[in-house]
């Protein structure tokens, strides 16, 4: 584990910059050519030609058109050859699979190739947390990713907080699970909403997001565009205080400033301080205010029509949980022989991952298991595209203005 930028928490075993994000267009661009390239050498060396078709290793095809198919290899060609090593792809491999699979060219293995390639590359995700100090942002992030991202954080006292301006800090941690690597960047907005006059609190956050878009735009037109470091913010967890009545003016203004730049997911912080009914009322009030002020939060994509019943049920439950009422804890406690993250009170235990106690599990499932790629796609296809379009309009206007003034 290591934290970059801050220069802290370094684990030598995980080199920095090794993984980069997997752009969806890159996935889509895999060609059959690259499939052939990745095959073992002995499987594609041409040994002879026969009519219009060519023999590739020990299979041949006669045409690239739809009717082309692998032909059974005459035994005389293979009898004196050593047995072929088994393919890593198994199913739908023309050499090893069942007779009916020989009907296929093999591009049904494309998802496997994409899978292998993306696992090798690793994934990258940038999460931003916005909310005033003490709402449990760092505790929640640690609980979500089972890590300690804030080891060296200095908590300021009231006097120091009054003097400070909003400071953006970025921590990076590399997590590996079952061979899949995730480089997680967490952008924190220290000092947000802490001063007496918070008018410009969100300006700094908005500028940071724009700056990452601008960096990406420049990298995209630069020479080394193959190895672009994607630091764009894919998701913003916006923490709403559980103690107020719905949204505060600062929440409305901040969400309005960020809504076209980032996927906002509203969070009711420290929901263990609220009863079941209070949570319900708070959620409905927040949603009606979001509606009233026409604020745009992240919209979950519709379920595909071919999804099964269970998936649809879970998807519906997830959508109903917004804004997620969450609980965080850095403590692991023993509850009836089970070790779990929980908050220990004199009157009982609040379990972080218990769906009856909070929406933590829904939030984590959504962020990590079901919607991470969609959040990245939305960032690239919608928010970044809108930034780029605005930039192009602005630069076009500057060109037109210069042209008018030089030609006068
Ligand atoms: P941050 O400043 O927003 O990052 O807040 P912290 O994560 O540092 O949490 C501030 C305090 O709130 C700490 O004492 C935490 O133990 C406590 N805390 C964090 N999450 C929760 C929660 O879900 N419920 C309650 N009751 N307290 C929490």
CATH topology of the domain at 112-153 and 161-400: Rossmann fold
Question: How big is the Rg?
Answer: 27 Å
Helix content: 25-40%
Strand content: 15-25%
**What pattern of helices and strands is seen along the backbone?**
HHEEEHHEHHEEHEHEHHEEEEHH
Spans of 5+ residues with little confidence (pLDDT < 50)? 1-79, 84-89
Mind describing the biggest β-sheet? Answer: 6 strands, mixed
Oligomer: single chain
Strand numbers in spatial order across the main sheet: 5-6-4-7-8-9
CATH architecture of the domain at 112-153 and 161-400: 3-Layer(aba) Sandwich
GO molecular function, one term: GTP binding
Main location: cytoplasm
Protein name: Septin-5 isoform X1
Family: Belongs to the TRAFAC class TrmE-Era-EngA-EngB-Septin-like GTPase superfamily. Septin GTPase family.
């Amino acid at each position: 584990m290591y934290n970059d930028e801050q220069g802290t928490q370094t684990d030598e075993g995980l080199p920095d910059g090794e993984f980069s994000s997997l752009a969806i267009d890159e996935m889509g661009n895999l060609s059959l050519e690259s499939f052939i390239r990745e095959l073992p050498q002995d499987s594609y060396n041409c040994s002879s030609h026969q009519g219009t078709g060519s023999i590739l290793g020990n299979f041949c095809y006669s045409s690239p058109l739809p009717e082309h198919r692998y032909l059974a290899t005459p035994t005389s060609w293979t009898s004196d050859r050593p047995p072929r090593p088994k393919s890593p792809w198994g199913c739908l491999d023309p050499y090893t699979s069942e007779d009916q699979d020989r009907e296929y060219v093999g591009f049904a293995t494309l998802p496997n190739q994409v899978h292998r390639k993306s696992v090798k590359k690793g994934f990258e995700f940038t999460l931003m947390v916005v909310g005033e100090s003490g709402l449990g942002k760092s505790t929640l992030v640690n609980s979500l990713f089972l890590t300690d991202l804030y080891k060296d954080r200095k908590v300021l006292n009231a006097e120091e907080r009054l003097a400070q301006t909003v400071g953006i800090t970025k921590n990076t941690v590399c997590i590996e699970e079952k061979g899949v690597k995730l480089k997680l960047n967490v952008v924190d907005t220290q000092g947000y909403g802490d001063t007496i006059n918070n008018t410009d609190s969100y300006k700094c956050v908005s500028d940071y997001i724009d700056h990452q878009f601008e960096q990406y735009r420049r990298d995209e037109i630069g020479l080394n565009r193959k190895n672009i470091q994607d630091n764009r913010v894919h998701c913003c967890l916006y923490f709403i205080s559980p103690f107020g009545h719905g949204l505060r003016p600062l929440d409305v203004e901040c969400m309005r400033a960020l809504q076209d730049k980032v996927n906002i997911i509203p969070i009711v912080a420290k929901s263990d301080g609220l009863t079941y009914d209070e949570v319900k009322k708070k959620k409905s009030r927040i949603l009606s205010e979001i509606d009233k002020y026409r604020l745009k939060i992240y919209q979950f994509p519709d379920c595909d029509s071919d999804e099964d019943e269970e998936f649809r049920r879970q998807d519906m439950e997830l959508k109903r949980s917004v804004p997620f009422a969450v609980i965080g804890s850095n403590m692991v406690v023993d509850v009836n022989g089970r070790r779990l993250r929980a908050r220990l009170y004199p009157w009982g235990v609040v379990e972080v991952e218990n769906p009856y106690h909070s929406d933590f599990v829904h939030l984590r499932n959504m962020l990590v298991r079901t919607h991470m790629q969609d959040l990245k796609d939305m960032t690239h296809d919608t928010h970044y595209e809108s930034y780029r379009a605005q930039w192009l309009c602005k630069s076009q206007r500057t060109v037109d203005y210069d042209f008018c003034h030089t030609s006068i």
